[in-house]
Amino acid sequence: MRSTLEGTTPVELLKAERQADGSHTSERLTEMLRRGEVLRVRRGIYVPAQAWVEAPPWTQYEITVAAVAISRAPLFCRETTLLLHGLPLLKTPPAVYGRTSDPGSAKQFAPPPLTGKVPPQQFRRRYDATYADGALHQARLSGISVKLLEAACPAGTSRSELRQCVRAGTYRSPEVRRDAGALQAVVGPKAGYRSEPLSLAVIDTVSRMSFTEAVVVLDAVKARNDVDVDKWLQYLRSQRQRERWQRAWDFADGRAESALESESRVLIDQIKCPAPTLQKVIRTPAGAFRTDFCWERERVVGEVDGKVKYFHQQYTHGIDPAELHYREKQRREALEGQGWRVVRWGKDEFRDPRMLRARLSHVGLL
């Protein structure tokens, strides 16, 4: 999960507020909502309707995080904190995560209607009349919930003991500040985002994830030099959490350069294929090429791609997709000219591992 495409301007949210002349922008924004021009992400926080409707789910998530930060400024945690610190996620989180000091508020809050008091069908008619790019489906008008959690509790401290410390003011959740540009897709609050430290969020979140999700995060963590998890290991409260953490941590490899490569590493291991070398540079008369995966003895190169790799900034670095496809063709021909066999795979293989097993078996790896 990452955000914007090359050249895309971050979305600017609109806030209902009093102006210097005494007027209030809420009336204007409410009228824009009735005309199908904006949507209300949170109370008093609006987004241009077209920007939301055309955005992929992860961009809608970032927009919601920014809107929540502007409207209530909670202390963000778990997946939301990972995102604020630039770590990749395998899938879009189901909610925006924040901390609360009130046990009674520790629950999930349904999102407010994006169309406010305007009936969704009426909004869709107004929107379709303004933007002729196709009918607006109801699913595009679904918001994202907020889930508030009590403070992370270290091993050796009971939840009731921690609550007493919170009430007495002797304990506060650790906090750092992320700047307004922490999310690529949206302009954040001027004061930035309140966030738990990344290392704590990594410990608290990864131990609750699936193995594949955890490896995606930890591969990226190991590629950085600003994450010290050792001091937070006490937050792994149960043996099950510690075992899940240790397994993913031991498997993680900072040489993986994308979530696609991390997911591939897990799948390769699951189908009992020999572990490949990552990021090996192979020299040919046409130039030197760095490969995603390499099995030197079998002279096999593995490359993970798919539609996402040709259209997202994270993978294209601003290169035109057609040009990128041409370069990949030249690269493959150069490698094959030196006796390497090139195997490619993408999302279809992730959905059905038997397809990848068949591809790797065909070149003698299984």
Automatic annotation (TrEMBL):
Organism expressing this protein natively: Nesterenkonia salmonea
Name of this protein: Type IV toxin-antitoxin system AbiEi family antitoxin domain-containing protein
Region (Disordered): 98-119
